[in-house]
Amino acid sequence: MEQHPRPKGVVYLVGAGPGDAGLITVKGLRCLQEADVVVYDRLAGPRLMQFAKRGARKIYVGKLPDRHAMKQEDINRLLVELALEGHTVTRLKGGDPCVFGRVGEEAALLAEHGLRYEIVPGVTSAVAAPAYAGIPVTHRSRASSFCVVTGHESPDKLDEMIEWDKLTQATGTLLFLMGVAKLRYIAERLMAYGRAPDTPVALVRWGTRAEQATITGTLATIADEVERAGFASPAVIVVGEVVRERERLQWAESRPLFGRRVLVTRARDQASELTRRIEDAGGEPYEYPVIELRMPESPASREALRQALAQPDAYDWLVLTSVNGVRFWFRHLREHGADIRQWAHVRIVSVGPKTTEALQEYGIQPDIAASQFSQEGVWEALRPHAAAGQRVLLARGDLSRSWLRETMEAHGLHADEVDLYETVLPEEDDPELIEMLEQRMIHIVTFTSSSTVTNLMAALRRMGLDDPAQALGVARIACIGEITARTAREAGLHVDVIAASSTIDGLMEAMLELGKMKKTV
Ligand code: SAH
């Protein structure tokens, strides 16, 4: 009987880098985005998982507090099975997969089965964690070589595996991974084989992440220092003269939002600017978009839009109140086969500089650009130009307040409201976020509208948190404006800062104020 060859998948063995999501390679990111299945562990960092394809299967094989990690042999077999099933698999590993990443065993079994795989190198923590602590592993006048050594084994095993005499004398900087528990032994051995007791040593824990912490000492003192500070793994141990550079070169830890993981709740396509700004300030953003905007589905909304778009001549004014409003306005025009030139006689009001910019991208200069980003701001700007009897089309999102329409009508204008888009709660759960909240790993929560507040609370409840306000209570809360803050308070949250101007700039400034405060978590 003729046998059809089974469809075979591919396994990408990808280095995730040390934790800062920006440190994955371009190729590694592509593999992550294309995979149907992502197999990952603790060191790969939760944030990268957000780049996985929607609906991709995510399999965690790392250690959990309540159970052991999956055995290496089982992981090897899992990868083979997934590839045999025809999947595109990305095996995401912390740092570089070839540096104590056991990639050799995974690749060997795949090779044995004739399965296709690729190794995608990553930025190893051995080099990156010291770099983020201001320690270059080589230096023109301090070290011309470095050596990466395992500290994982028992002392006997270490003695068997490591030629201490050669190691201490042959190379400049020594970098031990997985060595925190054996630090005292390692330091003693290095001194016994000829390194001076005053050789500087640094430990960098969770390098490049919000949890990064550094402790320094000498070979003679470091074990006591680490014990006293309760300094725990995972950390890179750096031994050598290069550690002295930290005093001058330390950079990451002095950035204003260093050490803060910031939850960004706004819609995904809007989040990038805020995310980038948080990164620039040294914080670690974590995106959980609780808002998704889509074309309105209710027949009433669709009908109102259809009517409005069919009669541009009925209006004197068109008010567009957000960047999203502008984008959706043009989507609707396209969908209805309309042309913006039919609206040439209608005067356009925009709110806020971003909305104005968005309009300019479409070749439109608004007649009035309200600087205050609120309905009150629109009215203030429009009022001197509007006359009773004129007709206004208020094109906005489905959650907008009716204040502006009512105010206009009270002044004798006719205002029609249309919903350009609908705001919905995305369906995808995020167990990583729940885990991080429980571990107090979220330090600041940002709300950029009232709906981000209500939707986050709803999403957390849906994911099984009985008391979301309490879960968020361990973090600082930053709101973009007074109305958002009021909604947050009504939801039982303690608001720590409110942006002075309701813009991303304002929100960043407010967060920098928080950055100056002592961390409570
Ligand atoms: N393949 C990884 C190393 C895996 S071994 C790499 O190239 O980085 C695990 C050890 O790596 C940990 O015990 C710790 O010593 C080190 N490590 C991994 N990520 C780290 C980080 N962000 N900060 C400090 N040490 C880290």
Automatic annotation (TrEMBL):
Species this chain originates from: Paenibacillus thiaminolyticus (Bacillus thiaminolyticus)
One GO BP: methylation
Gene name, Swiss-Prot/TrEMBL: cobA
NCBIfam families recorded: cobA_cysG_Cterm (TIGR01469), PRK06136.1 (NF004790)
Keyword S-adenosyl-L-methionine among record annotations: yes
Domain Tetrapyrrole biosynthesis uroporphyrinogen III synthase: 273-508
Entry EC number(s): 2.1.1.107
Protein name in UniProt: Uroporphyrinogen-III C-methyltransferase
InterPro entries cross-referenced by the UniProt entry: 4pyrrol_Mease, 4pyrrol_Methylase_sf, 4pyrrol_syn_uPrphyn_synt_sf, 4pyrrol_synth_uPrphyn_synth, 4pyrrole_Mease_sub1, 4pyrrole_Mease_sub2, CobA/CysG_C, Siro_Cobalamin_biosynth
Gene3D superfamilies (alphabetical): 3.40.50.10090, Cobalt-precorrin-4 Transmethylase, Domain 1, Methyltransferase, Cobalt-precorrin-4 Transmethylase, Domain 2
